[in-house]
Amino acid sequence: MKKKLQNVILKEMRYSKLFGKTVRDFPKEEVSTNAKLLIKAGFIDKLMAGSFTLLPLGFRVKEKIEQIVREEMDKTGANEMLMPLLHPKEIWNETGRWETAKEVMYQFKKENKEYALSFTHEEIVLDIIRKKISTYKDLPVKVYHFSTKFRDEPRAKSGILRGREFLMKDLYSVHLTAEDLDKYYWEVADAYLRVFKRLGFEVKIVEAAGGVFTDSHTHEFQVLCDQGEDTIYYCDCGSSCDCNFAENKEITTVKTGDKCPKCNDCKIKESKAIEVGNIFKFGTVYSEKMGVYVMDSSGKKVTVHFASYGIGITRLIGTLVELFHDDKGIIWPKVVAPYRMHLIGLQGAKADDLYKKLQDEGIEVLYDDRDVSAGQKFADADLIGIPVRLVISEKTAGKVEWKERSSDKTELISVEEAIKRPKA
Q1: pLDDT digits 0-9 by tens, 329-377
Q2: What is the rounded CA–CA span in Å between residue 208 and residue 219?
Q3: Which of 84, 173, 249, 270 is the most exposed place for a label (fewest CB within 10 A)?
Q4: Separation in Å, CA 156 to CA 162, 167, 175, 312, 365
Q5: DSSP code per residue over 109-152
Q6: Residue 353 — left, alpha, or beta (φ > 0 → left; ψ -120 to 50 → alpha)?
Q7: Which pLDDT score is estimated for 30?
Q8: Residue 361, CA distances (Å) to 122, 357, 419, 421 in order
Q9: Do the Cβ atoms of 374 and 347 come closer than 8 Å?
Q10: Per the omega criterion (within 30 degrees of 0), is the bond before 140 cis?
């Protein structure tokens, strides 16, 4: 997989050949920053409310995010697979969610049979597990996939933060005991924190309601952001304590300025936030309904314990843009940027030479080789938001202008230094 991804990353890319360039306008109904910038910069295209195409630049960002998530899921011992998106009614009837989750599911009939499009995969993975395991020696099972989800979202108005069709990583685990489940549950929580730290996010683990998934409280991973749709209340402990109290508005009884109910010292703050991940402990509720059992070491038939863990991949793209942008465009963190460098040639032959050298060194580079004005090239580079802009022109006199997207500072460096720096 890593080799395959590497081949995708290092293929040649001249901006003149790129499908999905910057555009002047975006749909007038779009109010969210992520939608405006991602559409204008050529990362996504809107089909309808809540449904977007990832254009080549957006697809590359998606691939980078998925690889980070994949690496951290693999560290927990989970196996990657891929499950179907079209589900028969019968499987959802086993848990009763064909009726209880009807409002969020896309359901339809074809040739006298009823189906649903996947809004989640709990029932599907438990069906697979009951076919494949029979003894406690087969446990625990930890499996995940990256797939499309479909949800009948009535408020699809925040760009790719809230879609009717979106990409998600969902992980599922099955355990012999509640204790073993609880241990892995918090291992995954730590893995999630590592994912979000690598993306440049500061997140809070927030207690929340389970919605259509469970009657029990769950844990969300929330990024503080003024454009977020959730409201959370949390302990403003800073470095003074580590109680980490945080609750979603939907379940909390605290309010701004209250004394923290956990540490009984710090004050409660309120903030808007974007949910970027969640984890659910179901216990034996679903496995009992679907008859997922194993024989324990004494030969007794026992119900397995079950949990699920989700990260919205396309939502992460939108969150990155909401957090990392300025009035000129996007500012991608280098770990997820579609390319490491954006080369602008205002003096053709020498720019071609540098482009080839960067390619030969395995450095990701988007080369703007178009016959357009320097102003347009610079504006597009700022809008697209690749971490480093390189410029070669008559004014650079055999050197290269280096400018980081997050800074106004420019400097002239040698070609050799331009090739060396990205590897440092």
Answers
A1: 999 999 999 999 999 999 777 899 999 999 999 999 999 999 999 999 9
A2: 6
A3: 84
A4: 5, 15, 36, 15, 34
A5: EETTEEEEE-S--HHHHHHHHHHH--BGGG--EEEEEEEEEE--
A6: alpha
A7: 86
A8: 45, 6, 8, 12
A9: no
A10: yes
d(CA 252, CA 376): 50
Three-class DSSP category at 223 = strand
Domain architecture of the chain: domains with CATH: 31-230+271-326 (3.30.930.10), 331-423 (3.40.50.800)
* pTM, rounded to two decimals: 0.93
Length of the chain: 424
Query: Each residue of 86-145: pLDDT tens digit?
Result: 999 999 999 999 999 999 999 999 999 999 999 999 999 999 999 999 999 999 999 999
Amino acid identity at 246: A
Helix (H) or strand (E) holding 278: strand 268-283
